[in-house]
Amino acid sequence: MEKEETDDPLRKLIDHGNSFISRYYSHYEESAPILEGCGEPLVELLVRQARLMSMATPDHGLIKRRLDDILSASYNKFYAYLYKDLPPCWRLLYTEAAILKFWVLVFEWARSRQPELIRKRVWDKMEWEDFELDTPARREEVYEIKARFEKQPKGTPPRKLGSAAWHQLMQLSMRTEVGGVHVRRSREASSRVRERLQEWQRRNEQEDGQQGPEQQQQKREREEELLNDMVKTLDLALILAGGGGKHDEIHGYVALLEKAASLPSNDNSPDKISSKPSESETPRQDPSLGRTRTTSLTQPPTKRARLSLPPPTNPSSTIDGWLPLNASGELVCPVAISDEPPVNTQHQTPIITQKPPNWSSHPSFSPYEPFTPPVTSPIPRLPSPSLTTFQSHLSSPTPQPLILTSLVPSWPALAAHPWSKPSYLLSRTFSGRRLIPVEIGRSYVDEGWSQKILPFSEFLSTYITSPSESKGYLAQHQLFAQLPQLRSDITIPDLCYTSPANRPDGTPELEEPMLNAWFGPPGTITPLHTDPYHNLLVQVVGRKYVRLYPPGAGVKRRGEEAGVDMGNTAAFDVGVLEGWDEATGEGGDEEEKEFKRLEYVDCILEPGETLYIPVGWWHYVRGLSVSFSVSFWWN
């Protein structure tokens, strides 16, 4: 008879982990043809770790080290190729190893939060592995002992069966069966099994022991560290390896983890261990965790070749992973709106509230603008045009830039799910734990420009809500493929499904519009450049100054720099030549005179407005305040 599926998020997470490990070989068969390109030794090492994880008492530390070796080996291959030329086997191998590491961390985390769940898992596996139940007679012998366990009160660990039953288990560890005849195991094999049973017993006794305040604090810190590591492991697979074609699978695991993390952790006192073990003998797969067939991924064209990004050295040290609640059970913004951020030292239990918070009462990002350039040649503004009208505009020989004032009035990001509220963004990024790639520096053409991967909460507190000498910019990142929670707050404008008449030669056709996020503090700059696609730039939070030059304006291009073709970026630095920024390199009077002769149009883009940028137009973009924008490329 089929058992009911549990509603306990942590138990459901463990069930999915058990199911994933038990089905790994059928799962692996889907990936095997692609993984062959990585070589047999690495692939065999990966499969061996899954086999070790299926053991009753696996050595998690050793398995994590081996998986880290695989992650390092595959990541090193990212340096040997341009991203678009990277063989898909290395992205997939990185992703497969990351998912296995995620489950190792889940089992460690669950052991701390609800040890009885892991004990039940170990007991179920120990029957087959440690007692070699290879004949019906032998299985019947051990199941008789198990039956005594099942008659005990729910949550009773196997070691509390009584001395007779425990002694019988130890005796079973001394012998095996060959051809229907009981024979004694070798002394070495018997000793190994006995040691594992005794170690398991010692672990349970330690977990059942009373813990003082210091031990409880250490336990909470360890759980938080493991939680951050789990999120980091999956996010790096999405950011560095493109998800290896397993986006839906990874999103499902993150969703289950976030639900499990919203529950309080057991304090491990003996009187608190009362949760019953999972009744399901064969955990069923959650429909939300549908697998996607592994495919080769492509990277969108960038303004500057993206560097391979090293993982952060210690993201957990900078994450405050709990959102505080007020007396009404609503989220309170945990990041600073003033210069001095409040320190949250208490781990409060709920991360997800039972009722939708009233975001209108939460603080918004500051609208402060340190500097506002004058608009000297305004771009025409008009309400949202019909598809026919816009198609006619696109079909003209030289379509011009337009500001559309009412194209996205119903976006939840502008009202019900306000991206202008730090607390809302934190609530949609697993309390700020999710990782994002950040550009460090004023502009990607400046010397010293670099890239980092940071937790979202650290990005907010370091670069958005507090003054910082350096600039941090989440720029041209496919954030919504990584965070579907934010993707549901916006919709693709219908205008992206029109058919532009002209397209640069060699530009690949897009099957669907390409979405990118742009989020940063005042003063972030995208230097003068061109894009290979038509673009709708939607301003969601704050304001931006945008200047555009037509394709035939005579803008001087940059050349190849450090082996990177920078021909889509102008040699002029608009901010420097206008006197808005300090010079970062050499320039001359002739260059300034040439620049001053060029004709352009410009605007300040307000929240809720959309700028249409025709393909081939040079554009310079400057954040005036804290700014969050979404761009839609299409052809």
UniProtKB/TrEMBL annotation:
Organism: Podospora comata
Biased composition (Basic and acidic residues): 195-206, 269-284
Pfam families in alphabetical order: Cupin_8
Protein name per UniProt: JmjC domain-containing protein
InterPro entries to which the protein is assigned, alphabetical: Cupin_8 (IPR041667), JmjC_dom (IPR003347)
Annotated Gene3D superfamilies: Cupin
Region span, Disordered: 195-223, 263-322
Residue stretches of biased makeup (Polar residues): 291-301
Residues in JmjC domain copies: 472-635
